[in-house]
Amino acid sequence: MKTTAKPAVVLLSGGLDSATVLAIAKSEGYACYAMSFDYGQRHRWELECAGRIVASLGAAGHHMARIDLRAFGRSALTADIEVPKSRTLDEMSREIPITYVPARNTIFLAFALAWAEVLNANDIFIGVNAIDYSGYPDCRPEFIKAFEHLANLATQAGVEGRTHVQIHAPLLPMSKGQIIRRGLQLGVDYSLTSSCYDPSLTGEACGECDSCLLRTKGFAENGVPDPIRYGCSGMTSG
Amino acid sequence: MKTTAKPAVVLLSGGLDSATVLAIAKSEGYACYAMSFDYGQRHRWELECAGRIVASLGAAGHHMARIDLRAFGRSALTADIEVPKSRTLDEMSREIPITYVPARNTIFLAFALAWAEVLNANDIFIGVNAIDYSGYPDCRPEFIKAFEHLANLATQAGVEGRTHVQIHAPLLPMSKGQIIRRGLQLGVDYSLTSSCYDPSLTGEACGECDSCLLRTKGFAENGVPDPIRYGCSGMTSG
């Protein structure tokens, strides 16, 4: 007997983590509805990547939401503020960096919840992780748990007790090396992904921002080369 | 000694409730940053009203965020679905109506949180109420409480233990009549507000949707006339 795949909304930035999450959700049998955000980010290249990842891995749908987080600013990703470079892992762990975008994951998950409700999907996937990460408050397990609680109060299905919305964050306990290993097993083509906070207009990664350094470390841990292009100049330093 | 007013973000739809909330927040001494959403709503007239309310009551700032909730549909406010008319209060209380917009208040509060963080504001005001209301899940006290919990995990200030974000919903325990009484005491000009889910293009209220019926009841309870214009035809029925 043929069963219909359960729908899930998968947040897809175009980065290494969310591409891996899409592959994981698919491997678990979900019909994946990928959701990306054009929010005024400096690293718009990742949106190109999101489209290519969907084309490569496949998805039941892909929605690009346009919102303007530049209006609020105060992040190196959405305002004219220099992206920090060449920080050590120890420096990264010490404070919330200027690349943090205020309430970004809350906004992304809120939109995902709206789409999930319309799709009758009870499952939302997000690629946050709390080990090799930039120290953002909205990447921590307690944040994800709080959003799941909220989601079940916010929606029609929750009120009627029909369903339970679950926020899946399968990368939470994984190191960057472990994430890449899992993705490679699942056939993720990492040449299609972009992690850099400050890429060139044609997508060369800077190799020096927190995100590039964590990515480089992850590939090194696996003893495999990173298939993306690194250039000498990001948009900031350029 | 002159003290600087504490900043607060106030969600302002242009309706009766949120106009009253703006007046309440101002009366409590906050420097109010009003936030409205052009989300593809059928009743766009309320956005005109939001601007007029800000001009009348005054605010430290007014931000209009543009987001597209039509992309998800499934609500009579954002899709081509007829707005229910002439329902009794008993009928309204029985089920979540088709005017419910999936995850709308979650999205609105998420944006308010982003702006609050940038403004260094610890206070967010929202005009939900749970007595004379349309039965939306995201208007209930438990939803507001869950969002407040989330907000304090989602943001930089929360992580660093510097502040505590508070979601104020001063109308929660009030009937529509009580809300209007409070607003009149505070000098709210209700002729500038719009409540109708299905107004004409020039702002005449239909007088028959749930929101019009609750509003009419509230003015009747106060024995004062409702100063807005009611017409015979809404956009749906016209």
Summed up:
Chain A is an alpha/beta fold.
What can you tell me about this protein's structure?
Two copies of one chain form a homodimer. Chain A is α/β, with parallel strands linked by helices. Chain A has one domain: HUPs (Rossmann fold), CATH 3.40.50.620. Chain A has eight helices and five strands, in the order E-H-E-H-E-H-H-E-H-H-E-H-H. The first copy, chain A, has helices at 16-27, 45-57, 89-94, 104-119, 141-154, 156-159, 176-185, 210-222; strands spanning 7-11, 31-38, 61-66, 123-125, 166-168. In chain A, strands 3-2-1-4-5 form a five-stranded parallel β-sheet, with helices on both faces. In chain A, helix 2 links the parallel strand 2 (31-38) and strand 3 (61-66). The first copy, chain A, is globular, with a radius of gyration of 17 Å. The interface between A and B is large, with 44 and 44 residues.
Task: Quickly list its features.
homodimer; 238 residues; alpha/beta; Rossmann fold; five-stranded parallel sheet; disordered C terminus
Write the topology of this structure.
The structure is a homodimer of 238-residue chains.
Chain A (H helix, E strand, L loop, with lengths): L6 E5 L4 H12 L3 E8 L6 H13 L3 E6 L22 H6 L9 H16 L3 E3 L15 H14 L1 H4 L6 E3 L7 H10 L24 H13 L16
Parallel strand pairs in A: 1-2, 1-4, 2-3, 4-5
